[in-house]
Amino acid sequence: MPRSRRPGLTRETIVAAALELAAQNREPTLGAVSRKLGVHITSLYNHVEDRQDLINAVRAAISAEHAGRVLPEGWEAVLRLLAAGMRDMFARYPGVIVPFATTPVGGSPVAPLYERLTEALVRDGIPRPGAEHAIHALNALVIGVALDSLDPDTDPVASRSALELGVEGLILRLRAMAGSRSG
Questions:
Q1: Is the pLDDT of residue 6 over 80?
Q2: HTH tetR-type domain: which residues (predicted)?
Q3: Is residue 5 one of the residues assigned to a domain?
Q4: What is the average pLDDT across 30-56?
């Protein structure tokens, strides 16, 4: 016998509630979303499979905000754009910092962008393991800066500068990796 569905409760309303929570610096857990919507947590399972599915749906919604953005030429510009975009996203939705940091990206709408960046790095002579490590390093850097920025005493200018310094350091290291392979 199929479970009854609450009228008005859809995957879209669940994701919208999760985004509202994240914008208020509250982690969008299944429990928090169900409380926000005034439904029993089991009602959510008619629309989302589990925590991973909810987080991927939130990633997809945030990614859709940037749909159609043309990526610049060259991996360095893409790396800078990705870092700035992630920084801005975490500033807008601070409640997703921890779940995004602890939930695998594979299968999410962000995975193809990461793969394109990895392929661009490999084409420029960076060994695949180094390219994949660079993506992990970028994520760690941005998440670290995002977590630091949650502290009300953190200077936003210093935080932005720290991220830019880290990204430029990563770019320099990747250039060296590419140069050592071609020479």
A1: no
A2: 8-66
A3: no
A4: 95
**Same domain (yes/no): 53, 135:** no
pLDDT band at 66 (very low <50, low <70, confident <90, very high): confident
Q: Which two tokens stand for residue 150?
A: 């949650």
Containing structural domain, residue 128:
70-182
- 6 domain residue, yes or no: no
Q: Is 87 helix (H, G, I), strand (E, B) or coil?
A: helix
Q: Three-class SS of residue 155?
A: coil
- Residue with the larger pLDDT of the pair 5 and 14: 14
Is the pLDDT score of 71 beyond 80?
no
Question: Up-side HSE of residue 43: CA atoms within 13 Å toward CB?
Answer: 19
Of the candidates 56, 58, 12, 63, the residue with the CA atom closest to the CA atom of residue 37: 12
What is the distance between the alpha carbons of residues 17 and 14, in angstroms, rounded to a whole number?
5
Give this prediction's pTM: 0.84
- In this structure, the answer to whether residues 97 and 38 fall within a common structural domain is no
Residues 74 and 152 in one domain: yes
